[in-house]
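User: My collaborator sent over this chain with a note saying "see what the structure looks like." That's all I know about it. Can you take a look?
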Amino acid sequence: MFYFRYLRRELRQRMRQTAVAALGLAVGVGLVITVAAAASGVSAAQGTVVHALYGVGTDLAVTRAPAAPKAGQTPPGMIMVGPGGSVSGGYRSGRTVENLQNPDLGTLPYASVAQVARLRGVMAAAGGLTVNDFKISMPSGGLSGPGSGSISSPQTFSLSGVDTGHTGLGPLSAGKITSGRGLGAADASSDVAVVDSGYAIAQNMHLGSVITIVGQRFTVVGIVDQPQGSNPPQVYIPLARAQALYSSSEHAAADLINTIYVATPSAADIPAVQDQIRKVLPAATVSSSSGLAGQVTGSLASTAKLADDLGRWLAAMALIAAFAVASLLSLAAIARRAREFGTLKAMGWRSRRIMGQVLGESLAIGVLGGAAGIALGYGAATLITVIAPRLSETVGATSDGSSSDSGLPFAGNHTSGATAGHTVPVHLTAPVSASILVIAVVLAIAGGIVAGTFGSWRIAQLRPAAALARIA
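Assistant: Without extra context I'll predict from the sequence alone. Here is the result:
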């Protein structure tokens, strides 16, 4: 009890010195909490955007670069006007033509899904076919001569074929059904559709509405709300039905897909699984969410770099300064208390007991500094959350197949072109986690120990007679 009474009395008698030392530690610890919270918020924001673009439950996506058009072949979605107003590409005067086009990604046989699913480290795999429904009306009489007219603007929407046996993977996995139901295994051959909420509002659709896809009528059985910024497909139908319609439109095989969504047990398995997929499908592009995060640019990426680089060094320098201030104050206090310690030694106190007393005082200052630092850190993190400007992420896509992480084979990115960029607004937060608080307390205690160690070393050099003679 005497130890604690003496400790409390000494701290109260040197209140100003105690407050200054504790405040120095508090500033350093508070800055560490603030920087760590800001970095955590930036990382969380990037993760949110990446998952919005990528699809929850998908660790890897396998695609293939589109094949170059053959000589004389009309590129998908292009209308070639020849002499006399003739039109190539399968379009005829006075007709409305509708087909499914896949201009952004090449196709893979559905058997590739089973190949990937058998690989070591693959927990699940699902195929997907995301295409554009393209409809255009040609004027009667062609583009020249009597009755000729101009080509009307095409009507188009993005369509995704969903593997109804693995709805936990792919573009629907990130969404939330707000009305009706989703697609299930029983819908594999049914003419049913789930519609994105934004598209449903724009087209005045609701449960029970009918949407026509290449002449086939599909009944809307669900409305899905996708994460903000994910640029999702607008209509979802069973994969088998999408394959059949795409086959009839492009005169292609009836089992084609353009994306394989892959789930792994853990992030540590992703590199090995990527290597295996490249060996099994050498012409394919294997992309991961971490690869997509590496393509992120914009103000959020700049903030992340600032938090990682400048913030780390700033926090380290603040901690060093705080430890130095606490140590110098401790040494100055020892010098002023030389007579006191000399007297205690003359009364029979051992150096070890005095050193323990000084270490106790330093630890108490460290605890006070840690508590104040946590309060400062919380306040700064809250302020960042309140006043932080709205940041943005821009993800650029390049689907040339030159890199294993090139392109954006994720939900919704097939519809805007392979070289298009997508910008997502993000509100920055600064969450303070329990681990950050533990680190803050450890740093504060460490600061107290460092200061106490320097002070204890000074005490060990004191001799009672010399201390009393110097002060007298």
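A starting point for your reply to your collaborator: The chain has a mean pLDDT of 75.
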